[in-house]
Structure formats: structure tokens, C-alpha cells
Amino acid sequence: MTFSGFELLKNALNGGAGWTPHWRKAQPKAAYDVIVIGGGGHGLATAHYLAKEFGIRDVAVIEKGWIGSGNAGRNTTIIRSNYLLAGNIPFYELGMKLWEGLEQDLNYNAMVSQRGVLNLCHSDAQRDAFARRGNAMRLNGVDAELLDREGVRKMAPYLDFDNARFPVQGGLLQRRGGTARHDAVVWGYARAADRRGVDIVENCEVTGLRQENGKIIGVETTRGFIGARRVGVSVAGNSSRVASLAGLRLPIESYALQAFVSESLKPVIDCVVTFGAGHFYISQSDKGSLVFGGDLEPYPSYAQRGSLAIFADVAENAMALMPMLGRLRILRSWGGLMDMSMDGSPIIDRTPVDGLFFNGGWCYGGFKATPAAGFCFAHLIAKGEPHPAAAAYRLDRFERGCVIDEKGAGPSPNLH
Ligand SMILES: Cc1cc2nc3c(=O)[nH]c(=O)nc-3n(C[C@H](O)[C@H](O)[C@H](O)COP(=O)(O)OP(=O)(O)OC[C@H]3O[C@@H](n4cnc5c(N)ncnc54)[C@H](O)[C@@H]3O)c2cc1C
């Protein structure tokens, strides 16, 4: 079934009786050409592009829970391509272009909303750094605007401009940035991949990676062995655990990150705002809830939950920036698992095991990367060579000293 105005009207008149499930409940076959481990946004996007762009349809996505149960369904939905470094800009801009055509490509309403991402600066030095980043973006054909204090005031009059410690001095705006509905991105990719014949196997955990003579030959799962010529690992916060099944030790640590959502308000914040003097970012969902987050938990963990200390920190940041939030009621908070790499940038590469490919190390930035990561990972699996836009994301860059450290935080994963 294709979504169209006609289908909407028809189903509105017949009580929705014509809607069909978006994807089949596939049972695993004995073997596939390609298995993608992880039914998050990245794994499903990889399967979609494998089938659509590279004609590889004998593909299964193996997910231990239900699709979107990981970070794909837990993030704060921000998309942007406002990066500084040469290794990152082409990749994230490819992603932004794919976001711009995503709904037509998938025939699915992913609620992509280019409402603008505004990074606030609070000191002269920070403004200079923003000017430098904005120039790098523009030199690479990415939109960027440096706003002065009055320019920011026009966009976001509710900020505490004269906060004694962190007065707002200006901001870097990417108008093409914004948000997308995270669940819908998962469902849209799943539906599109399924329509091209991809099997989406849920409730099936990969427990082993079987090799023969240094080559991958399939995966052990809670539903038995499934053979495969090629296997792509795309499991976000579980990267180190799954890679260890093949005897690999990755330059990655996992940390929990929380997100918070408030009661619904009338429209008040019409773009994404990030606080430059602390770690805090906020936007308003189409339902009216304010959606916001801050720092990682301070210690590595595989627990998908966070501590009260981080909640207190996020609340302090919120109050410094928008005192009106002091009267806000929080509805829910939750945690997801971040695979933090040593330089804060991702890895999309072959592994030392023949036929085993890896996509991970996404840190805070993996949702916005979903289309580009899926596209580039599919390219890598199909052709055996990295896509030019992801050429810098090699596994050996740490031993070569070619790190892509956007924040300049050094080899401390939790600081990126
Ligand atoms: C609170 C929070 C806020 C965030 N906000 C943003 C944001 O605003 N913008 C942004 O760009 N990024 C954000 N991120 C990061 C982003 O969500 C992730 O980087 C991205 O979703 C990771 O890719 P994914 O969607 O494929 O991961 P996931 O959805 O986590 O997919 C990985 C899947 O692998 C499965 N899996 C794991 N182990 C196995 C196994 N052994 N066998 C089978 N399946 C397995 C998991 O169940 C999971 O479904 C945020 C993350 C969190 C936690």
C-alpha cells in the first residue's frame, strides 16, 4: 500500500479498515547474503539502501528486542550538519540532503521539520569559535548564519539575555537543521526495506559471530544459527559487546544519556536551542511537550537509565537559560546507551574479520546521521570500499593519529 491523499481519504471514510501492517513479522531463513545486526535507525536504513541503491535484497535485519527499542526511539530527535572538521562536514551534509528528500524516498511522513538549530554563545572566545565553524560550513556549501544578540532576541525572546554569569552574546544558526520524528524514521525505513524483500527479524538476539578461516559465515542467535556471506554490526550502545563476539576490542566506551519530556504547552520554542555555557539542548515537539537533555552519566555503564545528579544538572542549565522553565512539569525521563568513541567521531569500516563490517561510535550524534550512516554503511557492505563521504571514519585512524576530534576534548570518550 502506498500512502497518498487518496488512500487517506478512502480510509477516513471506511474507518481505517484498509490500513495494512507496515512490515511482515519475518521468520529467519537458514541463510542470507547480508545480515545487519541491530534494528535501530541505522540498521534499518542500511537494509533499505542495500536493497534500493545496490540491488541487494537477500538481507535480514536481526533485532534482539523490537525495532526502535534502542536509541532510535529514545533520542531528542535533533538533526543538523553544523560541523567544523573536514572529516565530518561532507558526511553530515550528505545526511542533511537525505533528510530533505527522506519522506518522498520512503513514502512515509517522518515529520522532518527544518525549524532551525540555534547554538548560543556567551563569551567573545565562543563567538570567535562559532564564526570559524560557520565559515567552515559555508566554505563547504552548508548554510550558517552568525547572529548578534539582537538577532537571537528576535528568534528567542524567552531567553535570559542578561543572566549575570552567562549573558547571551549571539548565536550560530543553521536554518536547515531541526527535528524529525524518531519512531517514524524507524517505521519508515522498516516499511521501505520490507517492501523490497528485506526480512526484519525481531526478538532475536545475536549471541555469537561464527567464523571459518578468518571469514564470517553467519551469526548464532537465540533462534538458532543463521548463515551469511556478509555481516554488518550496527548496534549503537552495544557495539563493544557485539564486537567482542568476534574477538575485537573497540576504541569505544558506553555511557547512559538521559532525555526529558514535559507536559504539553502552547507553542513557545519554535527552533532547537542549545546552551553554550553548559550542556543543555531543548526543542518543542509537535504535541507541545518540551524535549530536552544534557550531559552523559559520568561513568561507563550498560544500564539504560540515568541518575538524579544529571537531572539536577540539566535543571540548573535550563534555569540559567530559560527561567520560565522553573514552572514546568516533567512528564517522563528515560535513558539510552551511547557508544562514545575516543575522538567523538564515528567508525564505518571493515573489520579484521573478512566479511564483517562495523558501524558505530556515534556518541551524541547518531540520530541526525541515520540516513547518511545507512547509505554509507550499505555502500561499504556492497562494494567493500568506504563511501567518499565517510572516508575518514576508519577504524585504524587512532593508531595512525588521524583523529577527528570536533570538540578538542582529547581521548576521553565521556567528554565528547
Ligand atoms: C537520550 C538520548 C538523546 C539523543 N539525542 C540525539 C539527538 O538529538 N540527535 C542525534 O543526532 N542523536 C541523538 N542521540 C544519539 C542517537 O540516538 C544514536 O546515536 C543513534 O540512534 C544510534 O543508532 P541506532 O538508531 O541504529 O541505534 P539503536 O536504536 O540503539 O539500535 C541498535 C539496536 O541494536 C540492537 N542490538 C544490540 N545488541 C544486539 C544483539 N546482540 N543482537 C541483536 N540486536 C542487538 C538494540 O536492541 C538496538 O535496537 C541521542 C541518544 C540518546 C540516548
UniProtKB/TrEMBL annotation:
In Gene Ontology terms, what is a biological process of this protein?
A: tetrahydrofolate metabolic process
Q: What InterPro entries would the database entry show?
A: FAD-dep_OxRdtase, FAD/NAD-bd_sf, Rhodanese-like_dom, SoxB
What range(s) does the Rhodanese domain occupy?
34-78
Which reaction does this enzyme catalyse, per its entry?
A: sarcosine + O2 + H2O = formaldehyde + glycine + H2O2; sarcosine + (6S)-5,6,7,8-tetrahydrofolate + O2 = (6R)-5,10-methylene-5,6,7,8-tetrahydrofolate + glycine + H2O2
The entry lists its GO molecular-function terms as: nucleotide binding; sarcosine oxidase activity
In which organism is this protein found?
A: Methylocella tundrae
Q: Which cofactor does it need?
A: FAD; FMN
Q: What is this protein called?
A: Sarcosine oxidase subunit beta
Question: Which UniProt keywords are present, listed alphabetically?
Answer: Cytoplasm, FAD, Flavoprotein, FMN, Nucleotide-binding, Oxidoreductase
Pfam families assigned: DAO
- Where, per UniProt, does this protein localize? Cytoplasm
Instruction: Give the record's GO CC terms.
Output: cytoplasm
Hey, which family's this protein in? Belongs to the SoxB family.
Q: Which EC number(s) does the record attach to this protein?
A: 1.5.3.24
**What superkingdom heads the lineage?**
Bacteria
